[in-house]
Amino acid sequence: MPCRACLSGEDLDWLGGRSVGLALDLTTSVAVRAPGAQPPEGAAGGGGAGSWAEEVWAFLRRRLPGAGPRPPAVTVRSDAPAASGLSSSTALIVALFRAFAEVAAPDAPLSARTLAQWAYEFEFGYFNGGGMDHLAVIAGGLLLLDGRTSGLPEIVGRVDFPDDWGVVVLDSATKKDTGDHIRTVRAQLAAGDARLAAYRERADAASGAVWEAVHRRDPAALGAAMGEAHAAMRDLQGMSTPLLEELREVALRSAGLPLKLSGAGGGGALVGVCPAAEAEEVAGRLRRALGAAHPRARVIVTRAAAGLAPELAGAPAP
After folding, report:
1. Which keywords has UniProt assigned to this entry (predicted)?
2. Going by C-beta distance under 8 Å and a sequence separation of 6 or more, which residues neighbour residue 41?
C-alpha cells in the first residue's frame, strides 16, 4: 500500500471542508507466511506489525466467520518513514486488513469500499480522527475530499498526478503525537474556538488552490498554495515547530524548494513538488545544505502512486 502526503487540509476530513491527499510510492506490504516459515532476509516478521495484527484480526473475526482464533504469521516490508505524517500506520493497517481478509474469506474478497470503511472504523476507535488516509492509500493518485464530521469523507475528485512531477520528502526524524493533537482539536471544536474556525476557512481555500494548480499543471502555483496551507497550520493551529520552520528555510534557500508539513502532531515530514527530472539534483543540494547541522534529517525522492483501487473514487458513499 502507498503512503499519503497531505498537500492541504489537515483535520478537515473530519472537521468539514476540503482536503487534498496524494498517494506516494513509499509502500508498505504485508504477506502471509506459511506456518513455521521464517521472514525473508531484510524483512520484518510479525513484530513489524506490532500489536496491530492481533487487533485487526480480532476486528475481522467479528465480521468474517472464517477467521480462526489467531492471526497468521506475516512478513512486513515498508519504505515509508514511521511516525512522519505520511500515514505509514494507515498503510500498514489497510495492508493487514487486505491480507487477513484473503485468509479468512478467500472466496469473498473485500470490495475497495468495504476495505476503506472497515479500516477507517478500526482506526477511528483508537484515534478518533478522519478518513483521508484510508481513501488516499486505497484510491491512489490525487484526491480532493469533502470532510464529514462522522464517517469517511466524500471523494469529490481524483486525478493522476502529472508524470513529470516528482515529490521530495524531508523527514525531520521528529515524531508526531497525532492522538494528543486530535483530542486538542476536538476540544476546540466543542468550545466553538474562533481560531479553529479561521483555520478551517483558510485551509479549505488553500485546498481549492492546490487542486486548481494541479489541474493547470502549474508547479509554482502549487508551491504557493501548499505554502498557504502550511501557514494556516502554523499560524492558527500551532502544528509546526521551530525545527520544521528551520528545515523549510534551508530547503528554500539551498534548493529553491517550498515545503509543507504533512499531517498534524508537532513533527514528522515536509513535502515539496518539483520537476521529476530535477528531483535528484534538488535533493542533493538539500542534503548538502542540511549537512552536519541536521544529521538525523533524511531526504527522500519519490513519485505519486496509482493506488490499489482508483475506481473507489467513483463509488457511492455508504
Report:
1. ATP-binding, Cytoplasm, Kinase, Lipid biosynthesis, Lipid metabolism, Magnesium, Nucleotide-binding, Transferase
2. none
CA dihedral of 262, 263, 269, 270, whole degrees rounded to 10: 20
pTM: 0.93
CATH number at residue 227: 3.30.70.890
Average pLDDT, the chain: 93
In this structure, are 85 and 207 located in the same domain?
Answer: no
Q: Kindly state the cell numbers that stand for 18.
A: 476540503
pLDDT at 46 over 50: no
Mean pLDDT on 29-48? 69
8 burial level (CB within 10 Å; 0-12, 13-18, 19+): buried
Coil, helix or strand for 236? helix
- Residues 26 and 172 both lie in one domain: no
For residues 280 and 176, state if they share a domain: yes
In the predicted structure, residue 51 carries a pLDDT above the cut 90: no
Same domain, 246 and 269: yes
CA distances from 56 to 69, 103, 107, 126 (A): 12, 13, 20, 12
Same domain assignment for residues 199 and 247: yes
Q: Which three cell numbers stand for residue 268?
A: 514528522
Structural domain boundaries enclosing 227:
161-302
